[in-house]
Specification:
By secondary structure, the chain is an alpha/beta fold. The chain is built from six helices and nine strands, in the order E-H-E-H-E-E-E-H-E-E-E-H-E-H-H.
Length: 206
């Protein structure tokens, strides 16, 4: 079954990656791309909300492209005033016309060093690598490692170690891994959407 997806990205440094995904999805029978590139700079907040509600209503998965510029939300007068923030928070809302979308965050090579630290697990007997991700005021990060304890899959959960695929509502995936097997990550996000109540989903930061 084809999945209908929406891609959230920052125009300033993410357009080339968005175009690559468009090309990839256009040649796929697994994905229906419902993304857009409309200029919303002159829209009011209410117009943006209605517009995004309509765009998202046909989708089940949102892909967040994490570029260096997308890692920081834009602010105005002390509040978040950012299109990508709106796209993700409206994706996470559970509404009558659109249930919460599954989420996958795809980081590009230029953003890796700001996001990823990998080391060997020393807290358990299993041979597994552990990825630590700095905490950020970003919705993708607030929806990682957020499985409710009763549904945790990793044996080390009580030591604050999580399965990256199963224990985060939003999986964090490198660009290369995603483009090589995008169907797997989109399906995984859609599957977690069906068990949303097993996660402490954070919808907004303010």
């Amino acid at each position: 079954m084809a999945r209908r997806v929406f891609v959230s990205f920052r125009f300033s440094d993410g357009e080339q990656y968005k175009e690559k995904l468009d090309s990839l999805f256009d040649s796929s029978v697994k994905v229906i791309n419902c993304s857009e590139d409309v200029d919303r700079s002159n829209m009011t907040d209410d117009t943006i909300r209605r517009y995004l509600y309509e765009k998202l209503s046909d989708t089940s998965v949102t892909i967040i492209l994490l570029t260096p510029d997308a890692l920081e939300y834009k602010r105005k007068g002390g509040r978040i005033d950012d299109w990508t923030y709106d796209e993700v928070r409206y994706s996470l809302e559970d509404r009558t016309e659109n249930r919460t979308n599954g989420i996958v965050a795809v980081y590009v090579p230029e953003a890796r060093d700001a996001l990823i630290h990998t080391h060997k697990c020393v807290l358990c007997d299993r041979e597994c690598s552990v990825t630590s991700i700095p905490n950020r005021e970003h919705l993708f990060r607030k929806n990682m490692m957020n499985v409710k304890s009763a549904f945790a899959s990793h044996a080390c959960h009580d030591k604050d170690i999580f399965d990256g695929d199963k224990d985060s509502y939003c999986s964090l995936v490198s660009w290369d891994e995603f483009v090589q097997d995008y169907g797997r990550y989109i399906d995984m996000a859609a599957e977690k959407r069906e068990r949303r109540d097993q996660f402490d989903v954070v919808v907004r930061l303010q």
